[in-house]
Amino acid sequence: MLFHVRMNVELPHDLPEKDVADILQREKAYSQELQRTGKWRHIWRIAGQYANISIFDVADNDELHQLLCGLPLFKFMDIQVTPLLRHPSAVRADDS
Ligand SMILES: O=C(O)CC1=CCC(=O)O1
Predict the structure, then answer these.
(1) 94 C-alpha vs ligand 1 centroid, how far in Å?
(2) Which residues form a coiled coil (predicted)?
(3) Structural domains present in the chain
């Protein structure tokens, strides 16, 4: 199942710099590992915002929930999820 996920990040201003660096390093490693598995298909920065648009390809809602809850930045994020399905007018056989 494909999901469009928007993640808005808001880090507390009083979070110590070394904690921020640690979280961001772990976030990058976690995200890149999921991208390598194909579960996190796309990640795009939203211009001018500390936010991204991502596409996940996972088995079901439960798997998506588990993956999102595992994000090191999870507690600092506002996450909006939109389930996707193929449009009947799409001309490509896949979305790669
Ligand atoms: O920077 C972001 O948009 C938050 C984020 C999600 C995965 C990642 O590496 O950073």
Answers:
(1) 26
(2) none
(3) 2-84 (3.30.70.1060)
